[in-house]
Each structure stands twice: as structure tokens, then as C-alpha cells.
Write a structure and sequence with these properties.
By secondary structure, the chain is an alpha+beta fold. The protein is built from 7 helices and 15 strands. Among the domains are: about 70 residues, no CATH class; about 80 residues, no CATH class; about 60 residues, Single Sheet (Rubrerythrin, domain 2). The chain has a 4-stranded antiparallel β-sheet with strand order 2-1-3-4. A 3-stranded antiparallel β-sheet has the order 14-13-15, with no helix packed on it. Helix 1 runs antiparallel to helix 2. The chain starts with a helix and ends with a strand. One of its GO terms (molecular function) is zinc ion binding. This is Zinc-ribbon. It holds the Pfam family zf-RING_2.
Length: about 300
């Protein structure tokens, strides 16, 4: 405040007209606020030619995930009315589907995939098809295939002919696993038990495990790489553990409890997470094998000391 008063005194001492002094004092007391220009952040989720204009805040973003990460509210992409070209920055109605500026490189070039129902568009390429195309003489389409499922209410990655919708689970499953999958009612509405984010409202691909619970495929792979093999919810084995159980068998053949020790007479009451059968087995310091399924995914209920 003291600095501002000194500046006003300095302006009054200037050899200029009273009108000019008044303008300078007014500008000093009322500084112009620099308007922040919204610049859409780079989208790491999709490869796109066009931004979406959020109907809620009228800002341009690469996708709804980018919007939700940077704003204090969520975006309903079905309410999107306008798109914005990433090159010439022209804005146009979403039903046009492509840039309307004739001088722009994107002029009348729609995205490789566009869903009118979800208002979802992208030009992502399938990595496997890109690799295959590099080995072939004839060029093939490298666009990531996607389709809209009316029953799921969302777009699904993959070829529609490879998937079938389960009305009980309320999701699409690959035809190879459809007849053998474990049905869990409305599994589509569940959250990923690993990252705790919604499974179907995120960019990650869903993965249905042997037990019927669903996680993000990325979370599933990371979980396994961290040496976790049990489902976070039911504790059943997420993958075929037969080879690992055989390794434990070989280890126990060389590391048995000494017969002359007090532990050799102990028994252990266990229950198996995989087959859900309870048994009483010989005590071991670490591993307890289920006699029913020959697995080691067991939990100690009680130790019987004799």
C-alpha cells in the first residue's frame, strides 16, 4: 500500500496534463488481469485429430479422461455437441465428424472410428496389426477395431463377431470363454479390486478371471508381476498354478520336518481357497498341501499339537 501511495505522488509530480495523470492513477489502482487461455493438455489415452468441446465448461480436451483429470467435475461425453480441430483449431458441430476448414489438412477427414451413440472417436492403431503390416508386401488396415454393444451401453475394443453378450453378467465375453465362464450378476457395475476405479468407465481393458471376478487387464498383469497370484476378493488362484505347485512338491521332498522333532507329530487343520474343502494334514513350517486339489493355496485354521 505504501508503494502504491509513493507511485501516485510520483505521477502527480510529472509535468503532464491532469487528464493523463488521472489515467495513469486509474490504471495503477485497477491493473488488468491477464486472461488465462485454456490450452488442451496432450491426450495420452487416444490418438485423435479432433478435441471434444465439453458441454459443461465449454473447454476443449483430448478426451473425457483428460477433462476429468483436470477439472473438478466429470464430463458426460454423450452431451458433447461440438468438436475442435487439433490443427486449425476451428470448431464445428459433432454431426459433421470432420474439419470443415477447406485450407486445413484435416479437411473432411473423419476419425478411423466414430460412434454416434457414445460420442467416441479415435484413430488408434492396433500394435499387432502394425507389426504384421511391416512383414507383409500388401498393406493392410492397422486401425484398432471397435464396436458398440447396445446391451452394455458402451463401445468395446475388438471385433463384434468375436464377442457375445451375457445377460446375467451384463457384459460382453469372448466366444472362446463364453461357455465356460463363471457368471457373476451385474459384474459390469463393479469396481476393480486392485486400483478401486470403475472397470467399465475407464480406458483400461477389463479382464475376467477364473473365479468370475473382473479387474483391469493392466492391473492384473502388474499384480502378477508383483508375485501375487490370489484374487483380491475371494483368494482363489488367478492363473493355473500347477507348475508352481510341482516346484513346491520338489522343495518339500528335500525339506521335510525332522521325524525326531516334536513337530513331526503335529497336525494342521486347513481350508483350501481353490476347492473350498477343509482337511487335516501333516504340519509344515510354511506349506500345507490340499489333498483334494493338490494345491497349496491353503489357509491354516488350527494347529493340533500332540
Amino acid at each position: 500500500m505504501a508503494d502504491r501511495i509513493q507511485q501516485i505522488h510520483a505521477i502527480n509530480k510529472m509535468n503532464i496534463s491532469q487528464i493523463e495523470k488521472s489515467k495513469m492513477i486509474f490504471q495503477l489502482l485497477n491493473p488488468k488481469k491477464e486472461s488465462k487461455i485454456h490450452k488442451p493438455p496432450h491426450c495420452h489415452h487416444y490418438s485423435r485429430k479432433y478435441y471434444l468441446i465439453a458441454n459443461c465448461c465449454k473447454k476443449a480436451y483430448g478426451c473425457r479422461f483428460c477433462h476429468n483429470d483436470n477439472e473438478d467435475h466429470t464430463l458426460n461425453r454423450k452431451d458433447t455437441k461440438q468438436m475442435k480441430c487439433t490443427l486449425c483449431l476451428c470448431v464445428f458441430d459433432i454431426n459433421k465428424k470432420s474439419c470443415q476448414n477447406s485450407e486445413c489438412y484435416n479437411y473432411l477427414k473423419p476419425e478411423s472410428y466414430f460412434c454416434d451413440i457414445c460420442n467416441l472417436w479415435f484413430s488408434d492403431k492396433d500394435r499387432n496389426l502394425v507389426r504384421l503390416d511391416s512383414q507383409l508386401i500388401c498393406e493392410i488396415s492397422k486401425v484398432k477395431e471397435c464396436y458398440h454393444c447396445d446391451k452394455c451401453g458402451i463401445c468395446r475394443v475388438g471385433r463384434q463377431k468375436d464377442y457375445k453378450h451375457c445377460d446375467h453378467c451384463n457384459l460382453c465375453l469372448h466366444i472362446n470363454s463364453f461357455d465356460t465362464h463363471n457368471c457373476v450378476k451385474n459384474v459390469k457395475d463393479e469396481d476393480c479390486p486392485i486400483c478401486l476405479n470403475n472397470i467399465w468407465d475407464s480406458h483400461g481393458n477389463p479382464h475376467v478371471m477364473k473365479c468370475g471376478h473382473t479387474v483391469h487387464l493392466q492391473c492384473f498383469n502388474k499384480y502378477l508381476n508383483e508375485n501375487n497370484y490370489q484374487c483380491p476378493l475371494c483368494k482363489k488362484s488367478m492363473i493355473d498354478m500347477t507348475m508352481y505347485w510341482k516346484m513346491i512338491d520338489s522343495h518339500l521332498e528335500n525339506q521335510q520336518v525332522p521325524e525326531d522333532s516334536e513337530y513331526s507329530k503335529w497336525k494342521t487343520e486347513i481350508h483350501c481357497n481353490d476347492c473350498l474343502v477343509k482337511n487335516t494334514v501333516k504340519y509344515d513350517f510354511v506349506y500345507h498341501k490340499c489333498p483334494n486339489c493338490s494345491g497349496y493355496n491353503t489357509v491354516v485354521d488350527n494347529i493340533i499339537k500332540k
